[in-house]
Amino acid sequence: MLADAIAEGLREEAMAVDVVYDGDEALELTSYNEYDVVVLDRDLPAVHGDEVCRELVGRRSPGRILMLTASGDVEDRVAGLSLGADDYLPKPFVFSELVARVRALARRSGPPVPPVLERRGIRLDPHRRRVARDGRELRLTNKEFTVLEELLRAEGGVVSAERLLERGWDENIDPFSNIVRVTMATLRRKLGEPPVIETVTGSGYRLEA
Fold first, then answer.
1. Which residues carry the record's DNA-binding region feature (predicted)?
2. Which of 2, 23, 124, 133 has the least C-beta neighbours within 10 A?
């Protein structure tokens, strides 16, 4: 129940979230998916959270690890961090703090990026969740915002539809869905003229220089 509640809350914060309920599933899913952040309950069944943490660190997985535990003892925090976790949050916690910690860890998991992304008159602030073009503020859905953010981060490079699916949707999305194409169409319409998103046949999308 806690895992589902956290996942629902993070999705409302425009994050793509996958959920598993025991250590075996956690190790399996992280073996073929890359995540910016892994929110890891220390008291997982099947394979304990400590062992999952050791395995992820041993694999040199790129994702940052936020460990959750029912104990707030200093000794437990030290033990969790000594396993290689990047951050530690005792339960119960305030959800807004969890969101802030996940965002902070996500920023550390990739290369540094400017606090505000700008290109072709588009100005996107990832932290305030605001975007404008030529001074005109735009109202985007969470998916449209994520797609535009990925295109801006690519700095004119091509971003594949598979990459956009990975960043904006969870693992349950049909990989053969046309959802990226539909989202791209509505995003183009909201951005207005002149058009700035180019379709690169067979490769993906990019923001024109």
1. 114-209
2. 2
Report the C-alpha gap between 39 and 106 in whole angstroms.
Answer: 11
Closest CA to 68 of 47, 92, 37, 36: 92
Per-residue pLDDT tens listing for the chain (209 residues): 989 999 999 988 888 899 999 999 999 999 988 899 999 998 899 999 999 999 999 888 888 999 998 766 677 667 767 888 899 898 889 999 999 999 889 878 766 556 788 988 999 998 788 999 999 999 999 889 989 999 998 888 999 988 888 888 876 676 667 889 999 999 999 999 999 999 998 899 999 86
**Of 13, 16, 9, which is closest to residue 150 (Cα–Cα)?**
16
Separation between Cα atoms, residue 73 and residue 15, nearest integer Å: 30
CA distance 86 to 77: 11
If phi > 0 it is left, if psi is from -120 to 50 it is alpha, else beta; for residue 168 that is: alpha
